[in-house]
Structure formats: structure tokens, C-alpha cells
Amino acid sequence: MKIQIERKNNDYLLEAKGTSGNTIMIDHSGMERVQGVSPMELLLMGVGSCSAIDMISILKKQRQEITSYKVAVEGERYLLDVSRPFKSMHVIVMLKGDIHPEKAQKAADLSFEKYCSVSKTFDKQVNISWEVIVD
User: Rounded CA gap, 55 and 109, in Å?
Assistant: First the structure.
């Protein structure tokens, strides 16, 4: 896996490109006019989207009908010397459709405990918790 990052202005705006050719804009969150997501937001997005892909795949295989999938990820940070890494993350998965709540919970458990490479990357450093709401 390989990505490329290119500076796009005279400040902190960056364009990151994945091997697929798709791009995302990244910026410094302290700027007056922020034009992209911050690197720390990207980490939260990575956890949320990785688990979403896992869960959707698992639930589709179980023939669960998902009409809406939303996820919210909140990260708590702490001061370490001059940096502020994540201490914990909490993920809330909100599903709508013809879905058995037990299957949705099991899919989330499998994702975070076994399949999601992003959350597994943080395994030893960041406490990741999750909850599933089926409406």
C-alpha cells in the first residue's frame, strides 16, 4: 500500500491520493478557513469506515436488509509531551432496516475484535469501545 501527498497552497492544505487514484483534502484544523479534514479526524474516519465495511459485508452475507448505516466516532485525547494522541475512541453504529439486533452486535464485535485492520492497529495504545443501535 502506498499513498502520495502534495501541498496545494502556501499554507497547510494537502491533497492525499491513494493507489486507486481517489483523493482527499487534508488541512490544519487551526486555520481560519479550513479546506480539508485534519490528520486526527482522518484516524477517526479510518476506524469508522473500516468497521462499516466489515459490518456491511457481514450483515449482507446474513441477508440482513440495511436501509440506513450511520456511524459516529468520538476520540478523547491526552497531552503527551507536546503531542496529543488519542487515549480512547467510542464508536456508535446506527442502523435502520430489517436487521436482527443480535446479528448487528455480533457483526460489530467481529469487526472490532478481529477484522478491522485500522482499529487493530491501535489495539495496544487506544481503548476503542462501540455500541450498536438498530432502529
Answer: 9
Cα–Cα separations (whole angstroms), residue 30 to 13, 56, 84, 85, 116: 12, 35, 14, 17, 30
pLDDT exceeds 90 at position 31: no
Number of H helices and number of E strands within the chain? 3, 6
β-strand 23-26 against 86-98: which pairing, if any?
A: unpaired
Query: Would you say how long the chain is, in residues?
Result: 135
Residue 100 has pLDDT above 90, yes or no: yes
Q: What are phi and psi of 88, to 5 degrees?
A: -155, 160
Could you tell me the three cell numbers for 99? 436487521
Which residue type occupies 117? S
Estimate the crossing angle of helix 39-61 against helix 101-110, to 10 degrees: 130
Cell numbers 491526552 correspond to 78
Q: Is there a contact between 54 and 111 (Cβ–Cβ < 8 Å)?
A: yes
Q: Which residues of 61-96 are buried (b: 16+ CB within 10 A; e: fewer)?
A: eeebebeeeebebebeeeeeeeeeebeebebebebe
